[in-house]
Amino acid sequence: MNSLDWTVLIAYFGVMIAIGLWSHKRVDNVSDFFTAGGRMPWWLSGISHHMSGYSAVMFTGYAGIAYTFGVTSFVTWSLPIAIGIGIGSKLFAPRLNRLRSRLHVASPLEYLKNRYDLRTQQALAWSGLLLKIVDVGAKWAAIATLLSVFTGISLNQGILITGVITGIYCTIGGLWADALTELGQFIIQLFAGIAMLVAVMGELGGFSALWTVWDKLPDGHASPTAGPYTVTFLLAFLFIKTFEYNGGMWNQAQRYMATANAREATRSARLSAVLWLVWPLVLFFPMWCAPLLVTAEKPDASDAYALMTEQLLPHGLLGLVIVGFFSHTMAMCSSDANAIAAVFTRDIAPTLSKAARTWSARAGLLAARLSTITFLALSMAVATQVNSPTFKDIITVVIKWVAGLMGPIAIPFMLGMLKTFRRSGPTAALTSWSMGLLAFWLVNYPINWNVSGGVPLQYQVSVPLAVSLVLYIVIGFLKPEDTPARDVLLARINGQGDGDGSGLTAESLKVPAQGTQATRGKHGKREDSGSSGG
Predict the structure, then answer these.
(1) Kindly report the CA angle at 211 between 210 and 215, in degrees rounded to 5?
(2) For burial by CB atoms within 10 Å, which of 20, 271, 514, 534 has the most?
(3) Which letter does DSSP use for residue 59 in this model?
(4) Are the beta carbons of 135 and 55 closer than 8 angstroms?
(5) 460 band by pLDDT with thresholds 50, 70 and 90
């Protein structure tokens, strides 16, 4: 990097902070800080949802997969995410929006206290918080790895720089700052990604390289599945990402909650799905061609994209691409920080402190900002250890730990919104959560160490979610814990239309007679003044 590249990078940081300061005046209370007050346009929500879904790991860990295995990096990663979000656009996005618009919650997990009980809410909140600290730590390490390649600064210095800048804007402006910076980051990444694509095509013979390069690449580079990324892994990943990217890890849930109504949330999800289907192709093509242009120095080839960028791009454009690396990581980390702060201040803190239950609007907002700073600091500390023997490397944390542990946390949260699973109560939720975590530990450690060749990756990441899913459904069938109060809650989440759902009753779910007395007048007719259609 020279002075021109540094100018581009510093200007980017300055713009991000300026957006945070501008967003500050749009944040008056906790609802504004965590869900933008339900005023976010669907297109901004969709772009924000997409940008908050991946980080510099795309340009390190997944670039290494693309360098080594080729097309499978797209087929077994972004393609199933696009499909999963498309499924969730009707199944989860509108219901997540109704959590805010009808139940008036500011945290995705806030409804769990009434859907199940306090123990379930706390179990999911604490385990998800700890997992996210590790997950975001991996993201900081990824961007710091790239920064060290370009500038020569140490890993810890890179973590400190990116973490502090992100902390400033997302703490000041909340979700509004996250979404607006993500819009700016998307535009920057658009130009940076196209610049890299054009540079690679120019090096390999022009536009025709899109179809002529394949014969020159290593054998199997065009295969949809390769290495450990098999068809079974693809199906398992689709299964996992359908839950994760539709709100299972909370930050994406906030994007749907921030839109005005359920219909807007659906449109937001569809836009994000289209972006996941199309844009990664632009980013991945240079990575697939990397073996023809550079020789990776790291065993996992996570430095391939950075080396190629240095070799092909002139100064100025090099700075723009580096800014693109930062944009994804800062988008994802800031959105995670906001989600975790929401869960801590709205779900955990009121359980730990009586004072937190009666916070004023100003005190609640201060707690939200302090929680954001604390989470960022903890994740940065973890980032300094991401390459230790415990974590092994960045991609291990992202694929194995996050994908494997996400399921047990997401199953009770996501399926708890669907009326199909109304019989699954606290027993089903806590059992599926705890046994899913146990399954993750077993397949990744004791069993993995004692099986010749180890447990295949697809089973390491999918078994915990499968165990949680089966137990959640089976226990709900064997030990139903549906009550009239829970049925009314589900009716408000599942009821169609954009009203507040105040007139929806347990009968809206076509429940058995146990709930009819509370919803019928003295003449036996339904007293349903609210809109249940739409």
Answers:
(1) 115
(2) 20
(3) G
(4) no
(5) confident
